[in-house]
Amino acid sequence: ETVLALDIGGTKMLAALVRGETVADSLTMPTPKGDGGPAEWLEALFAGIAHWQGTYESVGVAVTGIVDDGLWSPLNRKTLDIPDRFPLLQTVVGLSGKPAIAANDAQAAAWGEYRYGDGEGDLVFLTISTGIGGGVVLDGKLRAGLAGHFGLTQGQDFDGALEDHVSGNFIAAEAAAHQPGASAREVFTAAEKGEGWADAILDLSARRAAILCRNIKLTLDPARIVIGGGIGLAPGYRARIEAHLDDVPERLRPRLVPARLGDKAGVVGIADLARNTKT
Ligand code: BMX
User: Which of 31, 105, 163 is the best mutation target for the ligand 1 pocket, counting ligand atoms within 8 Å of the beta carbon and taking the most?
Assistant: First the structure.
């Protein structure tokens, strides 16, 4: 069964035709922040995939933010500024004419990595991207609701949400003083070229991510923490986190692995959930 899977994040929107863990076709568009709202963004996305009509039987939508009863709300507007309780399911059913389900993006990705990733046991997925999200699979079950919203947790040495001090948004904001307008990606490039300021920003971000991984290990004791997201999967970032875990005693040390499905974890996961949810 082919599922139309959508993954709407703070930076990009991905539409994919998914069979099992195979992505048969896909389309990526930047999330048009500040330009219309979710209704217009979804219309634009569906216009781009109009030629897929008739090739899928159901739809799964993974979004940054929380979905309650089909209504989509932001938790941190710095990640994506959308209105409260946007009628996501209703809009997607209207645009596709197919049954649909919706879930948080990182929870969907956690499920994708659990179903199709390597290894067994409990799993925590951690996406380090525009914001920081996560998903928790315990005893073979994906936890819903707020479970895994690690980016919203607060720190001891800074004010506000953790993600505002770690994520891609943070990295880009810190870079402004050194290289105005630089994206998080460009900070990685600068660090590779030996720029000390860029190295320091990435290191601070990774140090805080390492503390988060330690706390996750001590809270849930997952067999592995799967790292995803544009920052989490950027060259060298996971190694930086690992470097900050070097001195953690073996028994307490989290095992970090890269997302096997890469940036497709969300669409593969939400497609699987759509296939197995009778609506
Ligand atoms: C935020 C929150 C989470 C999301 C995470 C990663 C919003 C809009 N989003 O913590 O629901 O999973 O960011 O989102 O409040 P991403 O866009 O960086 O993938």
Answer: 105
Q: How far apart are CA 216 and CA 230, in angstroms?
A: 21
Judge if the beta carbon of residue 63 lies within 6 A of ligand 1. Answer: no
Which residues of the chain fall below pLDDT 70? 278-279
Element (H, E) at 131: none
pLDDT in tens, 200-253: 999 999 999 999 999 999 999 999 999 999 999 999 999 999 999 999 999 999
Please give the structure tokens belonging to residue 8.
């709407």
Which amino acid residue places its CA nearest to atom 12 of ligand 1? 133
Q: How far apart are the first and last CA of the chain?
A: 15
Whether ligand 1 lies within 6 angstroms of the CB of 163 is answered as yes
- In 3-state terms, what secondary structure has residue 139? coil
Q: Is 106 in the pocket of ligand 1 (CB under 6 A)?
A: yes
Pairwise CA distance, residues 221 & 262, whole Å? 23
Half-sphere exposure of 59 (CA within 13 A, CB side): 25
Residue given tokens 């948080």 in the structure block: 104
pTM: 0.96
Helix residue ranges, H only, 54-98: 88-96
Atom of ligand 1 nearest to the CA of 163: 10
Protein residue with least CA distance to atom 9, ligand 1: 65
